[in-house]
Amino acid sequence: MNLPTIDPPPVQPIDPKNEEKEHLLNLSADELTAWLTERGHPKFRSGQILHWIFQRRVQQFSEMSDLPKALREELENHFTIYVTQSEATVTSPDGTDKLLVRLPDGGEVECVLLRDGSRRSICVSSQVGCAMGCVFCASGLDGVDRNLTKGEILEQMLLLQDRLPEEERLSHIVMMGMGEPLANLDRVLGALAVAKNPKGLGISPRRITISTVGLPPAIDRLGDTGVPYNLAVSLHAPNDNLRSQLVPVNRKIGIDAVLNAADRYFESSGRRLTFEYVLLGGVNDSEDEAGELVRILRKRNVLLNVIPYNPVEGLPYVTPSKKSIAEFRKILEQGGVNVQFRQRKGSEIDAACGQLRRNRGQSKTPSSPANG
Ligand code: SAH
């Protein structure tokens, strides 16, 4: 049997001097240009530096061979490129790598690389923990510790890119790791601006998806950027009664406000919306719920992404049987909903958010399972 393998942590000591240095990846391209020009360097050095880091994958200023030596030293004295460390890597036989990333303050987040045909997709975290409290999700069991910085979000992308051979490039990004990206929107947008910059990772916003529990004012702000990112809304229930049990933040928002904000995003971005629906056996997988979903989604230009629950130790939920998944699917398909049933890749390596961190015993165990 092909079991996942856990690599020992790489020997990658972080220089204690780095703690006093500024994290280069927190700067925008314009801020880096300003820093350089203030010190009398030409503007184009900024693009060269980004190119070295994001495309040539170097980790040291000393390797940036087309920069003058004095500038390399100046950069070295002022900035650090990496502040995080890859703590553990789990590789699954289906081509999925999951990293546990250790932050400078000792916090940990997870990120994943998925290989699928020519696609090289990554799933990235936006917060340490999560405040949304979805009752079936491992990430939020202990609440949220803090927002990630823009640089910490970018570092996950770089650490995952580093797993690829030189001739392979990242093709897609999903902000579906730990945390609620729209609760840390400025930094997420800052990181994605570099991800889509041709001098950064050069990934089209059409290949970048931001997944949210559904925070209407932040969805509107995302729409106001005018950048055509894909929006995925985690719906999980077709009515307020059930949704408020599964996604507690819904109590203050309500499903109609979420759907209306999603509709506005579709209007302004022109991007087809995705709704995510984690299928929990005996909880949200009945024929009634399938029928209600048809009524909500039939008239909308959406893709419904149904994800059978990936069990989390200590939580009372179960993956539905094949038979009930098939029945749920039939109702949606017959109702004219554009639906996709996805088996989570990498489920054998705890690829659902927050699970690797928990299983490594880094977080507290809940005294009782949340709700449900
Ligand atoms: N906070 C954001 C993004 C992070 S969660 C959001 O809510 O969309 C990314 C997706 O994984 C969400 O749809 C979430 O509901 C789903 N998810 C969380 N735990 C899961 C589990 N144990 N099994 C299957 N999907 C899960």
Q: Keyphrases for this structure?
A:
single chain, 372 residues, DNA polymerase, domain 1, TIM Barrel, eleven-stranded mixed sheet, 32% helix, elongated, disordered C terminus, binds S-adenosyl-L-homocysteine
Would you spell out the secondary-structure blueprint of this structure?
Layout: E1 5-7, E2 22-23, H1 29-38, H2 45-55, H3 69-78, E3 79-80, E4 85-92, E5 96-102, E6 108-116, E7 119-123, E8 127-129, E9 144-147, H4 150-161, E10 172-175, H5 185-196, E11 208-212, H6 216-224, E12 230-234, H7 240-246, H8 250-253, H9 255-269, E13 273-279, H10 287-297, E14 302-308, H11 322-334, E15 339-341, H12 355-359
Parallel strand pairs: 2-3, 7-10, 10-11, 11-12, 12-13, 13-14, 14-15
Antiparallel strand pairs: 1-4, 4-5, 5-6, 6-7, 8-9
Helix pairs in contact: 1-2, 4-5, 6-9, 10-11
Instruction: Provide the gyration radius in Å.
Output: 21 Å
Number of strands: 15
Ions, cofactors and other bound molecules: S-adenosyl-L-homocysteine
Number of helices: 12
CATH topology assignment of the domain at 216-343 and 353-365: TIM Barrel
Structural class: alpha/beta
Helix content: 25-40%
**Main pleated-sheet profile:** 11 strands, mixed
CATH architecture of the domain at 216-343 and 353-365: Alpha-Beta Barrel
Mean of pLDDT: 90
Distance between the termini: 35 Å
